[in-house]
C-alpha cells in the first residue's frame, strides 16, 4: 500500500474542492481493483497529513473504469490491436463522469500515454514511469533495476525516465526478464503461488546489484510488498501512481506538473 514517507516528501499547497479522479483499469482487472484500494489508502495518508478527519465525506469523488483493452505487449510488437481505441473510450467515460485527474493501472500501456493525453487536454493523465523515476531520485537511489513485462523493458519506458534524472539503470539478464514476463502473466491468470518465488528471486537478484528495484508492472505489487524490504529498496510503481492521484485530488494545483525535487 502507498508509503506515507513517499507522500510526505511532496510539497503541500492550498486545498480547494476535491478533484474527481478516474482509474483506468482492466489491464488486468485485479490490478485495477488493487489500484483503487491503494488510492483510497493514499487518500487516508493525505487526510492525516492535512489534519483532516477520515470519514466517508472526506474522500474525493472517484470511479474505476474496467474496459477490455487489447494486449499491450502484442500491440508493441505489432502482433495485435492497438490499445488506443479502448483507452480513448475509457478516458471519454472518465471525462463524462466528471474526472479531472486520471491514472492508468498498467505500466506497459504508458507506451501510448502521449497518444491519448493529447486527445484529452482537460484531463491530468498521470505518467506512472515519470512519477516513479522522480520517486527513485527522491529516496536517494543512484542506480535502479526494473522488473516489468518484456514490452516495457524493450521500449525503454523506465530506462529513459530514470536516466533523465541521473540514475544508472542496471540491466537484467534476458533469462530473468523472460522469467519475470511469464510470471506476470501467471499472476494475471490467477496463478499467484507459482509466480511468487520467481518474482521474489528476481527482486533479490536485482537488489544485489542496484540501490533500488522498481516494480514496473501493476501485477508485481500483488505478490511483492515493499515494506518487507529496507526503506526505499523496492519502489512499487502502483504505489507511486496511487499516491500521485491522491495528491492531485486534494490539491488545487493538480494541473501543474509535479516537481522532481532534484
UniProtKB/TrEMBL annotation:
Entry's Gene Ontology molecular function annotations: aspartate racemase activity
InterPro entries: Asp/Glu/hydantoin_racemase, Asp/Glu_race, Asp_race
Enzyme Commission number, as recorded: 5.1.1.13
Pfam families: Asp_Glu_race (PF01177)
Top-level enzyme category: isomerase
Keywords for this protein: Isomerase
UniProt keyword Isomerase, yes or no: yes
SUPFAM superfamilies named in the record: Aspartate/glutamate racemase
Similarity comment: Belongs to the aspartate/glutamate racemases family.
Name of the protein: Aspartate racemase
Organism ancestry: Bacteria, Pseudomonadati, Pseudomonadota, Betaproteobacteria, Burkholderiales
Amino acid at each position: 500500500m502507498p508509503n506515507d514517507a513517499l507522500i510526505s516528501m511532496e510539497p503541500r499547497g492550498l486545498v480547494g474542492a476535491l478533484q474527481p479522479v478516474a482509474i483506468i483499469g482492466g489491464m488486468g482487472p485485479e490490478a485495477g481493483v488493487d489500484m483503487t484500494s491503494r488510492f483510497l489508502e493514499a487518500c487516508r495518508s493525505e487526510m492525516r497529513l492535512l489534519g483532516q478527519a477520515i470519514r466517508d465525506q472526506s474522500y474525493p469523488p472517484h470511479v474505476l473504469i474496467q474496459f477490455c483493452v487489447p494486449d499491450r505487449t502484442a500491440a508493441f510488437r505489432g502482433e495485435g490491436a492497438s490499445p488506443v481505441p479502448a483507452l480513448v473510450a475509457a478516458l471519454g467515460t472518465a471525462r463524462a463522469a466528471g474526472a479531472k485527474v486520471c491514472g492508468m493501472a498498467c505500466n506497459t500501456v504508458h507506451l501510448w500515454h502521449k497518444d491519448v493525453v493529447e486527445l484529452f487536454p482537460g484531463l491530468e493523465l498521470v505518467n506512472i514511469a515519470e512519477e516513479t523515476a522522480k520517486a527513485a531520485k527522491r529516496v536517494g537511489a543512484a542506480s535502479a533495476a526494473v522488473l516489468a513485462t518484456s514490452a516495457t523493458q524493450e521500449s525503454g519506458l523506465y530506462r529513459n525516465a530514470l536516466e533523465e534524472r541521473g540514475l544508472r539503470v542496471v540491466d537484467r539478464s534476458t533469462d530473468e526478464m523472460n522469467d519475470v514476463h511469464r510470471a506476470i502473466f501467471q499472476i494475471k491468470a490467477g496463478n499467484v503461488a507459482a509466480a511468487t518465488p520467481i518474482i521474489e528471486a528476481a527482486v533479490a537478484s536485482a537488489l544485489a546489484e542496484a540501490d533500488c528495484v522498481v516494480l514496473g508492472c501493476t501485477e508485481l505489487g500483488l505478490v511483492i510488498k515493499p515494506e518487507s524490504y529496507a526503506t526505499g529498496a523496492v519502489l512499487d510503481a502502483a504505489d507511486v501512481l496511487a499516491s500521485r492521484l491522491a495528491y492531485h485530488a486534494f490539491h488545487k494545483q493538480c494541473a501543474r506538473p509535479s516537481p522532481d525535487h532534484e
